[in-house]
Write a structure and sequence with these properties.
The protein is of the alpha/beta class. It has one domain: Aminopeptidase (3-Layer(aba) Sandwich), CATH 3.40.630. The chain has nine helices and eight strands. The chain starts with a helix and ends with a helix. The relative contact order is 0.18.
């Protein structure tokens, strides 16, 4: 786990910093380039999915890990994704460099020989601007008549606390959650039940010490708006199965969307557990396991 932790820290050091299209466009472009370079070096076939917003062009970074066998290449892919922009004024360590670091580390561990379908590793841009990047990408899937096995979206996965009262409950949540913020939320909708079940099963086997709480919401989560606060909602809205993995963001993290969202505030032991969880889940859903 120490090697994983060191590599995550290296990613975080490269990624953390305000990444906003208006106030810090240069850092946003540098982050795009970092994702492109790392996914390419990890063996992915990388393309940029361009979309227009405010009269400008922005890009989602899409790294495809193809299976070794030709018959697997035409199967619906599994998507793993995280957004790479921040709000203005935030360093964005938990939101969402933590998720990007896990995504990149997992991508580097995927081996074509072990895959029976493609895995798309995506960095979405402009999540903080009403999910513009993921909405454009998912709309392109819909327009092309493409299907996917599902999408696993990582959203703030690096903040955990052990003190009582460190976790707040989102309004109208239909399940009880602990008052200690040391668990991972696994949020799906009815169309994503199989994804939620696979993640929970892999977690129990691979990282049994990681506390995980699943929640399956009806429809597209309309009755619980706080369950829609990331790029998975773009998939839900187009009828695709998708799950969000999250530390619950501002229901736990007091640094959310603030300049103080820095590496020093993250729980690296908690964050490190996300990598084997994600790798095992990909192996279950897209591999020969």
């Amino acid at each position: 786990m120490s090697d994983t932790r060191d590599r995550l820290i290296a990613h975080l050091r490269a990624l953390v910093g305000e990444r906003h299209p208006i106030s810090s466009p240069r850092k946003l472009l540098e982050t795009e380039a970092y994702l492109h370079r790392y996914l390419t070096n990890a063996g992915c076939e990388v393309t940029l999915h361009s979309f227009e917003a405010w009269g400008k062009t922005f890009r989602n970074v899409v790294g495809v890990r193809h299976p070794a066998r030709d018959e697997g290449r035409s199967r619906p892919p599994l998507i793993i994704a995280a957004h790479y922009d921040t709000v203005s004024g935030s360093s964005g360590a938990d939101d969402n460099a933590s998720a990007l670091a896990v995504l990149l580390e997992a991508a580097g561990r995927l081996q074509p020989a072990g895959l029976r379908r493609p895995v798309h590793c995506i960095g979405f841009c402009l999540e903080e601007e009403d999910l513009l990047g993921s909405r454009a990408y998912v709309a392109s899937l819909k327009e092309a008549g493409k299907s996917i096995l599902g999408a696993i979206v990582l959203e703030c996965v690096g903040y955990a606390r052990s003190e009582p009262g460190s976790q707040r409950t989102p309004p109208h949540l239909p399940i009880a959650i602990p008052s200690v913020g040391d668990f991972l939320g696994v949020i799906g909708n009815e169309a994503s039940r199989n994804l939620v079940a696979a993640i929970m099963s892999c977690g129990r086997v691979t990282v049994p010490s990681l506390k995980m709480i699943p929640l399956t919401v009806p429809g597209r989560g309309e009755l619980l708006p706080d369950t829609r606060r990331s790029d998975h909602a773009a998939f839900w809205d187009q009828g695709f199965p998708a799950v969000m993995l999250t530390d619950t963001a501002d229901f736990r993290n007091p640094h959310y969307h603030r300049p103080s969202d820095t590496i020093e505030t993250l729980n690296l032991d908690f964050l490190s557990q996300m990598v084997p969880l994600l790798v095992a889940t990909v192996a279950r859903l897209a591999g020969d396991s």
